[in-house]
């Protein structure tokens, strides 16, 4: 027997006999018949609706399931509404349980709440605004909690978790080095290539070196590193804390009288604060190296010339502007990641949402912070 | 390899003239260098409720997953409805898979769909039915598993544990399967809900003429609804048969399972009420 073939489609035949009109149903009255089942059921009503009395003969029905039983019952109900009396005959015992179980009842669709587009839009806007403000408030309060707990630990250095901190520095800092070096070499090279190409029109291609030096050291190095770390380590921190929250590990810490901020969040945020300036320095060097290589090949500026032009173009503060920003970026990434991790609810979907939200928020905040720093440094003329 | 033969002769004869729905022969399943099933044989007959018991890590879930085709076997044959699934053409395989329904341990309801959409999913994907009929059938299934109609438009995250199991059972029954797999259907339910769920499975099995393959740890379920019980240990079925046969077995694991601290209490209580002839063997060897 092949399961694929539908051997006995649901059919019926109208027979007139002395006792009255009969509809002899036969075949498989099951869902396998798909739309043919529905058509057969509609056909029954059509065939019987002009009679006063009709008998459904189920003797030849080879298979019946709840869908078939439901449709037969619905047809009976429909005919009863048109004053056609229906009787069943030759119902097998197992079918009669099924027919009883699937007796006809009207399922009322639940009332849909009225929906007004303008109203919904306004409500949505209001809700997002309140949510954003609430989020900001939570962020500030979390920062406060973190600082308070840091001050507390500063008074009791023996409570500080050095091993955990070192592990986090390895995870966040050391293991990110290859990818940070790679993207920065590429970006340095791209900036150099475009600089040479565009400035050549003015015969000023040697200014490319100033362009690379200032752009990379002040902005690009720290920005690219922060964005990369927000995506790589921020998401990891949120996922880790979120899954701990889901499995009640955070609650377990709390009932032991331990502070999750001290045990879990401090090592991660401090790890970020220590790693990010180091990574930014590595990123700066990698981008300058990439720029130097491209300037040499593409613009004919030898490494020696590149170095002396660079020395003229930048000062120590150019480099420091970038590095000073790094710990602040780290703090923002770490706090957003931890906060979102702890805000995870019980489900896996919630964890996914929190990780996405953490990465989006921290990249956004990193760029906002960078803008604020640019305004700040410009106004103090640094 | 010794064949598991704790079956009473009567049962062995009875087996001759019954329709076998699942026949597992010499099944070998393993991961890496660990072999979990070492030549397992098992039959599931039409219209019965088979309870599968076994210690943790003995491969109850692996066996279920192997039968469902989620874990590739290393050897052996699994015949379902008389067909070797691995030898079927993809189209036939899909048709075969529409003849069974699975209730996963945690329900596995699609979280992005409402309960009603979950139940309609198999109908929607494999049958051409009008929306009206699909709505009616979904509501009918909800009622069959004892859920309120207002649960239809809820999302799985809004349901309690017991409701998730019921909704998942409704989805498993969406296409009116002949064979239903239940993976620990009563785990995580309170005793009252668990008893209700057992009763529900029993009723549905009778009404719809289902064959039920049920993995369970719940001794109450074994006593109340299982026609036969298969015990897994050491990578094979160490015993299969009516519960009474297993209770009499001398296998150390079975003795520990049914006559240990928890099982013993329940077994004794059941025996007192139900079966006067059978006496529990002394627990000390």
What does this structure look like?
The complex is a heterodimer of chains A (382) and B (285). Chain A has 2 domains: 11-101, STAS domain (Transcription Regulator spoIIAA); 141-379, no CATH class. Chain A has helices at residues 35-48, 66-81, 93-101, 117-155, 162-172, 177-199, 208-246, 249-255, 260-299, 303-313, 316-342, 348-379; strands spanning 11-17, 20-29, 53-64, 85-89. In chain A, β3, α2 (66-81) and β4 form a beta-alpha-beta unit. Chain A is built from 12 helices and 4 strands. By secondary structure, chain A is of the alpha/beta class. A 4-stranded mixed sheet of chain A has the order 1-2-3-4, with helices on one face. With 285 residues, chain B is an alpha/beta fold. Chain B folds into 2 domains: 19-99 and 179-187 and 213-277, P-loop containing nucleotide triphosphate hydrolases (Rossmann fold, 3-Layer(aba) Sandwich), CATH 3.40.50; 103-176, no CATH class. Helices cover 41% and strands 22% of the residues of chain B. In chain B, the strands form 2 sheets. Chain B has a 6-stranded mixed sheet with strand order 6-7-8-3-9-10, with helices on both faces. In chain B, strands 2-1-4-5 form a 4-stranded antiparallel sheet, covered by helices on one side. The model of chain B is unreliable at 1-13 and 275-285 (pLDDT under 50). Chain A binds chain B through residues 1-4, 30-32, 34-35, 38, 65-67, 70-71, 74, 94, 97-98, 101-102, 107-110, 347, 349, and chain B through 81-83, 91-92, 95-96, 98-99, 111, 123, 127-130, 133, 135-137, 139-141, 144, 149-150, 152-153, 157, 173, 175-176, 206-209.
The shape of chain B, in one word, is globular
Report the uncertain regions of chain B: 1-13, 275-285
- Class inferred from helices and paired strands of chain B: alpha/beta
CATH superfamily of the largest domain in chain B: P-loop containing nucleotide triphosphate hydrolases
What count of helical segments of chain A does DSSP give? 12
Widest sheet of chain B: strand order?
A: 6-7-8-3-9-10
CATH architecture of the largest domain in chain B: 3-Layer(aba) Sandwich
Largest sheet of chain A: 4 strands, mixed
């Amino acid at each position: 027997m092949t399961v694929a073939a539908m051997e006995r489609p649901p059919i019926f035949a109208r027979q007139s006999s002395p006792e009255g009109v009969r509809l002899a149903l036969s075949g498989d009255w099951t869902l396998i018949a798909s739309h043919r089942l529905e058509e057969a059921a509609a056909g029954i009503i059509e065939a019987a609706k002009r009679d006063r009395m009709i008998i459904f003969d189920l003797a030849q029905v080879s298979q019946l399931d709840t869908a078939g039983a439901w449709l037969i019952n619905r047809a009976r109900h429909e005919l009863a509404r048109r004053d056609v009396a229906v009787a069943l005959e030759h119902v097998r015992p197992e079918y009669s349980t099924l027919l009883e179980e699937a007796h006809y009842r009207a399922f009322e669709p639940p009332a849909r709440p009225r929906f007004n587009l303008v109203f919904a839009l306004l409500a949505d806007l209001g809700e997002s605004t309140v949510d954003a403000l609430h989020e900001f408030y939570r962020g500030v309060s979390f920062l406060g909690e973190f600082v308070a707990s840091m001050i507390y630990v500063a008074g009791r250095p023996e409570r500080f978790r050095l091993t955990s901190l070192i592990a986090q520095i390895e995870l966040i800092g050391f293991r990110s080095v290859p990818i940070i070096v790679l993207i920065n070499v590429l970006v340095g090279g791209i900036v150099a290539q475009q600089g040479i190409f565009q400035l050549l029109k003015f015969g000023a291609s040697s200014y490319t070196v100033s362009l690379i030096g200032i752009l990379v050291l002040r902005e690009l190095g720290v920005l690219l590193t922060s964005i990369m770390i927000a995506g790589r380590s921020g998401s990891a921190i949120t996922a880790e804390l979120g899954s701990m929250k889901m499995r009640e590990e955070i609650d377990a810490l709390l009932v032991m009288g331990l502070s999750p901020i001290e045990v879990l969040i401090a090592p991660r945020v401090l790890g970020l604060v220590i790693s990010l300036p180091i990574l930014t320095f590595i990123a700066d060097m990698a981008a300058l190296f990439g720029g130097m290589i491209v300037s040499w090949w593409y613009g004919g500026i030898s490494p020696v010339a590149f170095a002396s032009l660079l020395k003229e173009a930048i000062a120590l503060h150019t480099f420091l502007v970038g590095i000073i920003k790094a710990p602040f970026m780290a703090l923002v990434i770490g706090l957003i990641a931890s906060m979102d991790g702890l805000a995870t609810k019980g489900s896996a979907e919630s964890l996914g949402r929190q990780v996405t939200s953490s990465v989006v928020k921290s990249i956004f905040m990193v760029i906002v912070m960078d803008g604020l720093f640019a305004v700040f440094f410009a106004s103090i003329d640094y | 390899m010794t064949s598991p033969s704790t079956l009473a002769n009567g049962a062995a004869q009875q087996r001759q003239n019954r329709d076998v729905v699942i026949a597992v022969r010499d099944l070998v399943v393993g991961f890496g260098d660990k072999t979990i099933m070492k030549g397992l044989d098992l039959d599931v007959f039409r219209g019965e409720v088979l309870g599968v018991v076994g210690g943790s890590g003995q491969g109850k879930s692996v066996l279920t997953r192997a039968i469902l085709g989620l874990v590739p076997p290393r050897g052996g044959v699994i015949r379902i409805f008389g067909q070797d699934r691995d030898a079927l053409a993809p189209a036939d395989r899909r048709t075969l898979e529409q003849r069974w329904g699975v209730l996963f341990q945690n329900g596995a309801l699609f979280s992005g769909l409402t309960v009603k959409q979950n139940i309609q999913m198999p109908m929607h994907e494999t049958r051409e039915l009008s929306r009206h009929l699909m709505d009616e059938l979904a509501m009918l299934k909800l009622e069959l598993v004892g859920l309120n109609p207002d649960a239809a438009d809820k999302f799985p995250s809004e349901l309690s544990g017991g409701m998730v199991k019921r909704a998942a059972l409704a989805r498993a029954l969406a296409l009116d399967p002949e064979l239903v797999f239940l993976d620990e259907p009563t785990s995580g339910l309170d005793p009252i809900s668990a008893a209700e769920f057992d009763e529900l499975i029993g009723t549905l099995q009778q009404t719809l003429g289902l064959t039920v393959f049920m993995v369970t740890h719940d001794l109450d379920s074994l006593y109340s609804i299982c026609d036969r019980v298969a015990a897994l240990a050491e990578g094979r079925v160490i015993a299969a048969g009516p519960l009474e046969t297993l209770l009499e077995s001398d296998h150390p694991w079975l003795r520990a399972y049914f006559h240990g601290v928890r099982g013993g209490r329940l077994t004794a209580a059941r025996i007192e009420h139900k079966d006067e002839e059978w006496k529990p063997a002394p627990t000390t060897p």
